[in-house]
């Protein structure tokens, strides 16, 4: 029997594999003293994301993550909800639920822990728009 027959999808949420620019810093006070690392958000759901970071990020650690939602600022500007053209970012406290490290680069899975209501609504709207635009979904 093929090995794929034993595979069962564990994720309840559709992942969106469109790459997003992100940054990550350990969530320890004072935050202004924490080094911030650039990251690439490889895919995302409304509950978490997978990031690639050029640093070692340990499993179980709590991080503050900022993720840019490309093009979303134009939508907000058009609806008079935002007056600047800078990329719209969500900031969320997250827990690293898994980590793979190779050559001082981490690929990590994070779950969002504490997202404010406006960021939660913006992310839900952004992902809904991406879904209706027909971006390929990835549940693997």
Write out key terms for the chains shown.
140 residues; alpha+beta; six-stranded antiparallel β-barrel
Question: What does this molecule look like?
Answer:
By secondary structure, this protein is of the alpha+beta class. It has two helices and six strands. It has helices at residues 72-78, 117-132, and strands spanning 20-26, 36-44, 48-53, 62-69, 88-102, 105-114. It has a six-stranded antiparallel barrel. Strand 2 (36-44) and strand 3 (48-53) form a beta hairpin. The longest helix is centred in the C-terminal third of the chain and has 16 residues, at 117-132. It is globular, with a radius of gyration of 16 Å. It starts with 19 loop residues before the first strand and ends in an 8-residue tail after the last helix. The model is unreliable at 1-9 and 135-140 (pLDDT under 50).
Write the layout of secondary structure elements.
Blueprint: E1 20-26, E2 36-44, E3 48-53, E4 62-69, H1 72-78, E5 88-102, E6 105-114, H2 117-132
Antiparallel strand pairs: 1-2, 1-4, 2-3, 3-6, 4-5, 5-6
GO molecular function: cyclic-di-GMP binding
InterPro entries: PilZ_domain (IPR009875)
Domain PilZ: 36-128
Short description:
The chain has 140 residues and is an alpha+beta fold. The protein has 2 helices and 6 strands.
């Amino acid at each position: 029997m093929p090995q794929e027959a034993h595979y069962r999808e564990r994720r309840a949420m559709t992942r969106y594999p469109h790459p997003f620019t992100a940054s990550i810093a350990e969530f320890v006070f004072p935050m202004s003293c924490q080094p911030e690392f650039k990251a690439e958000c490889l895919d995302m759901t409304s509950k978490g994301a997978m990031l690639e970071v050029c640093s070692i990020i340990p499993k179980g650690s709590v991080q503050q993550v900022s993720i840019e939602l490309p093009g979303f600022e134009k939508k907000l500007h058009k609806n008079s909800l935002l007056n600047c053209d800078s990329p719209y970012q969500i900031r969320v406290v997250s827990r690293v639920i898994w980590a793979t490290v190779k050559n001082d680069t981490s690929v990590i899975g994070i779950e969002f822990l504490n997202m404010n209501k406006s960021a939660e609504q913006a992310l839900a709207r952004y992902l809904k728009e991406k879904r209706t635009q027909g971006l390929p979904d990835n549940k693997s």
